[in-house]
Amino acid sequence: MKAEIVTIGRELLDGGRVDTNTSHLGARLAALGADVTRATTVPDDPKAIEEVLLRALGDADVVITTGGLGPTSDDRTKHVVARVLGRSLVLDDDTLERIAAHFEELGRPMPEINVAQAMIPEGARAIENTIGTAPGLLMEQDRTLFFVLPGVPAEMKRMVESYVVPFLEGRGLRRLTEERILRTTGVPESAIAEEIEGLTRKLARTEIAYTASATGVDVRVICRGDTPAEARRTADDAAERIGEKLGNAVYATGEEPIEQVVGYLLQMGKKTVAVAESCTGGRLGWRLTRIPGSSEYFVGGVIAYSDDLKKRLLGVRVKTLKDHGAVSEEAALEMAEGVRDKAHSDYGVAITGIAGPGGGDDEKPLGLVFVAVSWDRGERVERFRFSGGRDTVREMAAQAALDMLRRALL
Amino acid sequence: MKAEIVTIGRELLDGGRVDTNTSHLGARLAALGADVTRATTVPDDPKAIEEVLLRALGDADVVITTGGLGPTSDDRTKHVVARVLGRSLVLDDDTLERIAAHFEELGRPMPEINVAQAMIPEGARAIENTIGTAPGLLMEQDRTLFFVLPGVPAEMKRMVESYVVPFLEGRGLRRLTEERILRTTGVPESAIAEEIEGLTRKLARTEIAYTASATGVDVRVICRGDTPAEARRTADDAAERIGEKLGNAVYATGEEPIEQVVGYLLQMGKKTVAVAESCTGGRLGWRLTRIPGSSEYFVGGVIAYSDDLKKRLLGVRVKTLKDHGAVSEEAALEMAEGVRDKAHSDYGVAITGIAGPGGGDDEKPLGLVFVAVSWDRGERVERFRFSGGRDTVREMAAQAALDMLRRALL
């Protein structure tokens, strides 16, 4: 099954907007086992649209377009589609009713211009738009399936899930690849690859891909099967075996961020945490509180950006700052203990470091970060040396702190 | 001048990665007055690449490809380009030297596979890659300029700025459009449009575009001229007049984020600030500390997520919490005063609100946020009602706090 994607809009070509529709549609089609052979972007220009559609219709089994369905005069996709397929436009009563109801709900009269949106090519099926007014369209011609969808990503995605994917599944397209994601942090990509290389070479119909970012390496395990059930089994088995090999380095299987995993662990243990942040300036707190319900276990903390606040709000000793400096193992530990004490929390996590761009020297270079975790029965402190820009160093520091807290909780 | 963009890579078609190269190249080409007529994405498949290149060469004055230049066997662009243009590959000594030097710098032996990267089509110019190993290429054939660039966005961008744009300018392409950005926050798009509509209708050769996001509305002023100087003058004049009309709502002209503007104002006035954050969990602190050198004016603050910390670390009164609740004008003011007092800063900024998804009721609905600013000669508090998901509400709250601080500093 060959598929082509056509995205329409001047703004996608002059830098006004990044085209994310192609990637979304590509992922959904690939998951159904379709082979996406090409994606083309053209402006809202009838000739350009016509040319690309004629070519795609001759070549692909499925063509999906997005964009150019709005009520303004720029939006020409529907007329071009009708012409290319040799069909006239006819009024679709259901669609007109829906658009009228939409305006009634908004309490506004329906502008004349929106009536044109209810005109669809003869023989086309209108795909309901539950968010906006422009319906999508499905046509079949010479064994090619032709989906015409709106360009607004939310509207397009809704139609893909509610109509396009079920329709293609009904035509026998099945999910013959399955993906599992093992998320790791704190271990370099090369070390992970080395660790699992022997195993993955032995796994049949399994491909491994690595996605490295500032916050860690995601190991994507992609498996094929002759049936959907077989693909799922292969993927479950491969993910389990790779996960065992990587052990504690894996903080989640799936899309969960590490702050969610930490949240589970804190809730399970009925523990609370407070943070003391210097160079990260609040990033750790922000991340922990991204999880709904985090008030169950996160009490707050101190952003101790200045040395003065480290002393006054966290109780870091003058002597510590004088002898070792604010970026030191000793200061990190006192910050973690201090915030745990002030906030009456079970765990205290502290970050202090040199994020740059200025401030580093030979002894304490740029990117040097200390993270400490303190709790009633122990404490840990680690030294990191991160590289990248200011925000990258700070993001890596917050990630390392979340991982140290996770390991302390395990 | 017609331009086409071709991006190459399977991962761009199966949802593995969003293609941001097209948008970046499109913006740079459009700024030079080129008309980007089409962008196509194909997999790393020689036949697919060949087909799209042959078509583009017949149609466009400038063709730019990205992707498929790495050393692994997937990466086939160069071979296809050579074949399409009827050229053989020859060793480029300069490039080989550069690649060897790159590996020497890394302290690693150069793998044999990287030697292939120094082979370029006969008559092509190699474009130096200052970040990675694969060089870019420039060829001319039948009056078409043909740039072959790496797919890694950072490498591609570097070559565009250092080579492609200067080269095209040397060929007489000139920047005949100029853009100015007026950044606003806290005023709805419709209100801004209404305010400046009368004026902008009178401005010749000027187009206005609005980009609305959770943090505000950017007004893009796009002006044309018959010469680059005229375009610049028109843009400067239009931006100034629109800026006057919008007054204080504009916090920056250009790309500056509001935290940078706030930083300037604090530094100019030799003032310091501390933050007290409840629902934002550290976002305001993170944003203020994104600016290098922010330690000059940002001392830190308290993440007072729990009521207990609001009382103990900020001195919010029990009675206030009991009578008005933690999400109230009164609590916000006491938090701002409290943090200013504890941190010995000139300004204190506080945020308290209901970010959701749970926790709202009729009296205090989801998205309700209070922001307070306190300083030696005054205090202000405002009530906001934001909508969107949890993170959106929190980002809008941090943005509103930065804007209130800016206005207090003006």
Please tell me about this protein's structure.
Chain A is of the alpha/beta class and 410 residues long. The first copy, chain A, folds into 3 domains: 2-170, 3-Layer(aba) Sandwich (Molybdenum Cofactor Biosythetic Enzyme, Chain A); 177-253, 2-Layer Sandwich (Alpha-Beta Plaits); 258-409, CinA-like (Maf protein, Alpha-Beta Complex). The first copy, chain A, is built from 14 helices and 17 strands. In chain A, strands 2-1-3-8-7-6 form a 6-stranded mixed β-sheet, sandwiched between helices. In chain A, strands 14-13-15-16-17 form a 5-stranded mixed β-sheet. A 4-stranded antiparallel β-sheet of chain A has the order 10-11-9-12. In chain A, α10 links the parallel β13 (273-277) and β14. Chain A starts with a strand and ends with a helix. The model of chain A has no long low-confidence stretch (mean pLDDT 92).
Structure in a nutshell:
Chain A is an alpha/beta fold. Chain A has helices at residues 21-31, 46-59, 77-84, 93-106, 112-115, 153-170, 189-202, 228-246, 258-268, 283-288, 307-314, 318-324, 329-343, 390-409; strands spanning 2-8, 35-42, 62-66, 89-91, 119-121, 125-127, 136-141, 144-149, 177-184, 206-213, 216-224, 250-253, 273-277, 298-304, 347-353, 368-375, 378-385.
